[in-house]
Structure formats: structure tokens, C-alpha cells
């Protein structure tokens, strides 16, 4: 479905709200008429003012403009964010195919290209069961973003998903920069779930490398935020990673109790894939850390 023009969408919204052209105070009637008939494209500041008069955000405007649905690009980004767990391989494969199809038509869309790099990295990590993988594309992305004085949200998000592949001193530097920039963006939309996921992934990454002192505060902060945001799945993920730390510190019975508690709740809320994943990872951990 081809989206409406900006002018057509403004006119449609205005008429649906029974607002007269003369009631749009941000521009004169003649200018508005030219915009609505697509004879003129509004300046950004003019467009913002019209949206204010229409009581609408730019994001919702584009949703309406696209026939009350996300654009193909926005849908890809939305679907990628929803793929929180590497367990759902069929969903990830389907998304990968959709991204590849999109890039055949829009090969210069950098952000969507980066999603493909992230998927490739995750697949390699899951297949080889190690963070020590080779990803030249990730290095190129890092070099570009690191050259910037300021990171924007997409930069933060991309690096929060790619830090795994870098050697430890650099990985720590990236983790700190991502955390600092999340602070800058803390009031930007609803980024808390993304921030929680990053804290969890960073904590699990440090756990994997035996850096439990570095991992623990990140995981506790992830658990706190997940509790406040009422995101139990993310809270359980934090509980699992914290149980690993408890175990290596000698609190083995307590750690096992926490794993059993989490798995019991996951069974009760019908999340068998997550429960099985936690049981598998815990058993692998125990095999490498005999009591």
C-alpha cells in the first residue's frame, strides 16, 4: 500500500477532526491549502507547528499516513526489538529473510544493514557457544560510531548488541560508553526495556569471563529496573545470572533454590523454552564448576 503524501494526510486528519483551514494558526490559509494539495512541502518547523494544531505526534502522523500501520522499515525495526531471545530461531530466520529482501530494494539503509550484522553475530555465538568470534563488520561499525563526539540512540542500541565480539579491554570501554549514553537518553521514549536487556547482557558477559565483581552491580540494577517496570521475564533472567555469582561465592544451596524458583514460575506462566534454556545453561555451568 502506497502511503499518502504529507499534504493528503494533513488534510485527511484535519477534516476528520472537523478543523477548518482557518483554525490552523501555525500557517496562513493559502500556505496550508498549497501544502494539502501537495503543491508545497512544509518546512520542518512548519510541519511541527501543524502537528501541534492537529494534536498529533510525528510518529503517529506517519502511522496514519501509512494506512494505520507501520512502514515496512519500521515493522522490521519493531520486530527486531521483539526478538529478545535467541531461542526463537524460526522467528529470527524469518526476520533475517525479510531484512535481506528489504535490503535488495534499499541497499543503502545503514541501520537495517546493522541489524543483519547483529543477527549474524548472535547466530555465531549460539552456534559456537563462545563470544570469541570473528566479525569484521562489527569492527567497522565500532570504528564509525567511536569517531563521533556524541552517540545517538541508534548508535547506542547497535553497540549495546555488538560489544560481545570485542576483546575485553575494548568491550569494557564500549559497555561504559553505552551506559553513559543511556543516561543521556533516559527520558527518550520508553527505552528502559532496552536498557535492562543491555545490563543483563553485560552482566552475563562478565560472568562468562569470570568477572563477577563487575557483573553483580549491573545485574542487580537490571533486576531493580525490571521489577519497577513489571517485566518478570527480564527479572528472572537477572535472578539466574545472580544465582551464578552466588554459587561461585560458595552459596550453592541458595543458588540452586533460586534456579528452581525461577524455573517453577516459568512453568506456571507457560514459558517452556525459557525454562529449558535456563535448566540447560545451569547444568552446563554446574558441569564446569563442581561443588
Automatic annotation (TrEMBL):
One of its GO terms (molecular function) is DNA binding. InterPro entries: Cro/C1-type_HTH, HTH-type_regulator_Rgg, Lambda_DNA-bd_dom_sf, TPR-like_helical_dom_sf, Transcription_activator_Rgg_C. Residues 149-276 form the HTH-type transcriptional regulator Rgg C-terminal domain. PANTHER family: HTH CRO_C1-TYPE DOMAIN-CONTAINING PROTEIN, TRANSCRIPTIONAL REGULATOR-RELATED. This is Helix-turn-helix transcriptional regulator. It comes from Listeria booriae.
Amino acid at each position: 500500500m502506497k502511503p499518502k503524501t504529507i499534504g493528503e494526510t494533513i488534510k485527511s486528519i484535519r477534516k476528520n477532526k472537523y478543523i477548518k483551514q482557518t483554525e490552523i494558526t501555525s500557517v496562513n490559509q493559502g500556505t496550508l491549502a498549497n501544502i494539502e494539495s501537495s503543491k508545497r512541502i512544509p518546512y520542518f518547523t512548519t510541519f511541527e507547528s501543524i502537528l501541534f494544531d492537529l494534536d498529533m505526534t510525528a510518529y503517529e502522523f506517519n502511522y496514519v499516513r501509512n494506512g494505520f500501520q507501520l512502514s515496512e522499515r519500521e515493522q522490521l525495526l519493531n520486530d527486531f526489538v521483539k526478538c529478545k531471545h535467541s531461542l526463537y530461531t524460526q522467528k529470527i530466520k524469518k526476520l533475517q529473510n525479510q531484512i535481506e529482501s528489504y535490503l535488495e530494494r534499499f541497499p543503502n539503509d545503514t541501520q537495517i544493514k546493522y541489524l543483519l550484522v547483529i543477527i549474524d553475530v548472535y547466530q555465531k555465538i549460539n552456534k559456537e557457544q563462545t563470544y570469541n568470534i570473528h566479525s569484521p563488520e562489527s569492527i567497522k561499525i565500532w570504528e564509525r560510531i567511536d569517531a563521533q563526539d556524541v552517540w545517538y540512540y541508534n548508535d547506542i542500541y547497535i553497540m549495546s548488541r555488538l560489544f560481545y565480539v570485542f576483546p575485553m579491554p575494548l568491550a569494557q570501554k564500549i559497555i561504559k560508553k553505552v551506559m553513559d549514553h543511556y543516561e543521556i537518553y533516559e527520558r527518550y521514549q520508553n527505552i528502559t526495556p532496552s536498557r535492562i536487556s543491555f545490563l543483563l547482557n553485560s552482566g552475563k558477559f562478565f560472568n562468562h569471563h569470570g568477572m563477577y565483581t563487575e557483573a553483580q552491580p549491573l545485574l542487580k540494577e537490571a533486576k531493580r529496573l525490571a521489577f519497577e517496570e513489571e517485566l518478570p521475564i527480564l527479572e528472572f533472567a537477572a535472578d539466574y545470572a545472580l544465582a551464578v555469582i552466588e554459587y561461585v561465592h560458595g552459596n550453592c544451596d541458595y543458588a540452586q533454590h533460586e534456579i528452581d524458583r525461577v524455573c517453577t514460575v516459568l512453568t506456571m506462566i507457560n514459558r517452556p523454552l525459557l525454562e529449558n534454556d535456563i535448566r540447560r545453561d545451569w547444568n552446563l555451568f554446574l558441569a564446569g564448576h563442581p561443588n
